Amino acid sequence: MKFKKFMALICTFAFTCSNLINGHNDVILIGNEKVGKTSVRLRMLGYELKGEYPHKPGFDCETLRKGNIDEEVTLWACSGYEQYPFLREFIDLAKIVVIVFDITNQQSIDDIGNHVEAARNEHKDRPIFLVANKADLRDMETCHDTLTAAADKYNIKHLYFVSALEPGDGIEWLKKGILCAIDELNEA
Questions:
Q1: What one-character DSSP code corresponds to residue 111?
Q2: Which of 4, 82, 148, 152 has the fewest CB atoms lying closer than 10 Å?
Q3: From the centroid of its chain, how far is CA 54?
């Protein structure tokens, strides 16, 4: 119990500092365990991926700079919010939620609705991005059909299919889409 309270305190402090430092431009990636949230985040930040990353409940974060502009976007990968309810509060604080699912894992596809519910808990109109990861392991028609069916079912407008482990345009399109959505939110 003490560990959970300590983790909650650390996460609250980190998230609050991030919001204060960069003007609340936080983007949080959520999804089932082992769908590739950390890999997608790291690829968006320009890292080469090597090997697997261990599953751990909590947060990983790093800042993405927006070109020459002095504005920053903090990318958070959140895992374990289903088991640790205090982590759900941080989803409510983010400007944008990115739901990552594994196109090869039916359970992660079936659980999209749970993540949409968590994303819309406090902010019904907040941008939600739906990302089908591991698209290189399925044919494009299957990827497209699965992604659009989920987007239609949950009324999500921002759709991407990527392969975090393979070079390609999907990660760059996702990054550009998020940065454009941040700009639109900041202009409103």
A1: T
A2: 152
A3: 17
What angle in degrees, to the nearest 10, is found between the helix axes of 37-44 and 169-187?
80
| Helix (H), strand (E) at residue 145 | helix 140-154
Provide the β-strand partners of residue 161. Answer: 132
What lies within 8 Å, CB to CB, of 52 at 6+ separation is: none
Query: What would the two tokens of residue 41 be?
Result: 């985040």
Token readout for 66 is 């927006």
CATH number at residue 34: 3.40.50.300
- 49-85 per-position pLDDT tens digit: 776 665 555 556 666 766 655 567 888 887 766 666 6
Kindly report the pTM of this predicted structure: 0.82
Q: Residue 69 is encoded by which pair of tokens?
A: 């502009």
Q: Looking at the 3D structure of the chain, how many domains does it have? A: 1
d(CA 155, CA 133): 19
Angstrom distance (rounded) from CA 54 to CA 74: 21
